[in-house]
């Protein structure tokens, strides 16, 4: 094909595919079938491969994914990503409405919207093309997940129509529809992995995957609800939603304008009931002042806008009969009592099992086998028992006693004074505890061996190949190839089989090899010493530099380290005095695991400002300029002398040069005061 012809065909196909994506994923009104669509897409992929010079920015082929993100870059938000004040009752909504009325005086119109239960995201568009997608993070900075977000087909990579600003941000929620959620969990079950507790967790896990082609397979979706930018041309929030819809964004059809508190209550009531008919989760309603000038008059508190509030639905309850009680052992050895229930419909699913919390709650509720109990669904994978209907207690209801031995290994259970849970103390050979330790060892923030998941670890353990973390480094191709596991599918109750194939085994071995370059601080965290979390591990590693020095340290030297108290120190001393642990370290060391801190790993107070640059200018009340700059560096940030488009913040004191302020305003660089800065540091 001639060059000019190819260029034109690429443009035509891109437009056509974009239109079909919009029809299918945003409007749910497809005009063509899957086969026809796939033909168009393969033609475009082929032409782009032959003529990469003509690939358009925002080409729909980017929805397919393929890009790998090893480490998500931290990006600061241009506008901080705030949260909303929560309310749970009509009374609180009335207070909100009255407060606003008092402050504004005039008549106020509201927009009621669904509160999507997903993961917040901010998308930046420049000249109509999606250029960046950032998660909320801590509200000041989040993760750059652009490559993954581009795989979501309802998200326009290039905007439709005209009239959009040269640059703006749109905020919304990435969600996982129920249908995709169920499919993913079935697959996880087949792979032997723990299913996701709810669609929100699944969405959040999905957007942080390294391989965007895998993200594409998750079929995420997103709804958008807030536009941000300089001089946006809207008088009301509602108008901005209508405009965003015309540019191709998926905007909910259920946003409604309301004039009175009564209108708002009607909306709450309708959706409290109708939420179970939606194909995705919502967890409440958001109420916003519609007029943007009024929004500006109301402004923000430190954490949230005064012009919006969220109303959270109460968890739905159901009543059913308690048939029997089992005891389960968790990864930490904690025992959870689990109720077997007469199946009951709750929030769209059938519930058969529910948590009975711990021994104290069982005693407090005085729950007995045969009782009518109330079940509630929270964010956890398993619902909870929250009460007993004593009036319906049958005469033969039976009280039961808490387990005294571990149901997995038979060891007598123990309970530390002041703690609610009973534990199985057999840390070294109780199967769920061993698997738990291995899973922690390979997890993302520890050794990050993502080619191994819970399912594969379980398979290696069940086949006797790994017992200790160090055993992972003795695995070979020949030992793993062909391992099999039979399981019963909860879907169709049929027996299914999974087996380790060549690609799986090679990936596992590559992942294990790569873990040898993980820094000492993460290795220390991976060991799973009680009370040694990520931050403590970092502090210890950067203080002692080598494991030998850490092991030689006594209680005084340990508690000298910032944030290390008596409790953590005792836990470390106890751990390092166990011969099995010393052997583990020695084996890991021979395998080539790092037990020495790299010189380049300068100890930082936090990573709050990593990747950010500051300009500090003027005279400050409480600190000198030098102190402020030192603090910025201690939290990972950089100081520069002049404002540019790359500057993250202008920290402005008294008598600052007017030029710096002007430039910052022009470039949209946020200008913060000494006290704003103090708040940021406190959060770090
Ligand atoms: S507006 C400054 N609208 O809920 C106001 N938020 O708990 C920005 N959310 O941070 C938020 N649905 O992640 C808004 N229709 C909606 C929403 C919504 C879900 C999330 C969002 C927000 C959080 C607040």
Keywords:
OB fold (Dihydrolipoamide Acetyltransferase, E2P); five-stranded antiparallel beta sheet; 6 domains; 684 residues; Helix Hairpins; single chain; D-amino Acid Aminotransferase, Chain A, domain 1; binds 2-(butylsulfanyl)adenosine; alpha+beta
Structure description:
36% of the residues lie in helices and 19% in strands. The strands form 6 sheets. The protein has a 5-stranded mixed sheet with strand order 2-11-10-3-9. A 5-stranded antiparallel sheet has the order 14-13-12-15-16, with no helix packed on it. The mean pLDDT is 91. It binds 2-(butylsulfanyl)adenosine. Residues 82-84, 113, 115-116, 120, 173, 225-226, 286, 305, 308, 310 line the site of 2-(butylsulfanyl)adenosine (IVH). The site of 2-(butylsulfanyl)adenosine (IVH) has 14 residues, from strand 3, strand 8 and strand 11.
Report the total helices: 24
Number of DSSP strand runs: 22
The CATH class assignment of the largest domain is Alpha Beta
CATH architecture descriptor of the largest domain? 2-Layer Sandwich
Q: Average the pLDDT over all residues and give the rounded result.
A: 91
Q: Outline, from the CA principal axes?
A: globular
CATH fold type of the largest domain: D-amino Acid Aminotransferase, Chain A, domain 1
Radius of gyration: 28 Å
Which structural category do the helix and sheet elements fall into? alpha+beta
Approximately how much beta-strand content do the residues carry? 15-25%
